[in-house]
Specification:
- Helices cover about 60% and strands about 10% of the residues.
- With about 90 residues, it is mostly helical.
- It has a domain of about 45 residues.
- Strands 1-2 form a two-stranded antiparallel ribbon.
Length: about 90
């Protein structure tokens, strides 16, 4: 992946920030194996996973915003209704 920066093309890795992340040994081993098998770097796999998680979070936040004006139902009312209908 490349980006344009002040008229020059720069690779994503040149713009990357370094971070220290502590992984469980088994997870680190599995990640290294997946990187080798897929011809990707560990950094690429971690970036993809973080990007996917952030995307899912953004979708969740949008769903919360879009439903913010919906009426709420108290939990106790829900439980009473489920019991009344024989679901509990």
């Amino acid at each position: 992946m490349t980006f344009e920066r002040r008229g020059a093309m720069v690779s994503a890795m040149a713009l990357a920030k370094r971070a220290t992340v502590y992984l469980e040994p088994d997870l680190h081993r599995a990640l290294r194996m997946k990187a080798a098998e897929t011809d990707h770097t560990v950094s690429e796999l971690v970036n993809d996973a973080v990007r996917q998680q952030m995307s899912e979070d953004a979708e969740d936040l949008e769903a919360f915003r879009s439903r913010a004006k919906e009426a709420t139902l108290p939990f106790e009312t829900l439980v009473r209704d489920l019991k009344r209908r024989g679901k509990l």
